[in-house]
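Review the following:
>
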Amino acid sequence: MSQIIIDQLTHAQKVRILYKTILRLHRGLPEELRDLGDKYARDEFRRHLQCSPMEAQLFMTEWAKYAVTITSQLGLKGKAMGTIGGELDSNTVEMLKEDQVIQLYELMLAAKGLEGDTITAKDIHNSK
């Protein structure tokens, strides 16, 4: 899409395009990761429906980076070419709020098939 066309879109249209792009990219993931990724993206996009303009800009930027990362990790035919995902650097983890750390931990449990485990304050402090 050319920059002129993108500039003419409303914020809601840009969000919808990004969301649909992410779901389309998830089709190239293994089934269990696709399901997890689709649920997570759906939840995050819904959770940010009423966020402030500054939060919305950060949200869109981070999800666009995610889309670029996933695109680079999928082959031309849309199938994973090796490792999917990447390591979080310690600076990024340090900047997370406590509820974000919990959410990240729960996402890790779900990705490892350990859903149902609980997180405690001790788990959060041990991970730092």
Summary: The chain has a mean pLDDT of 81.
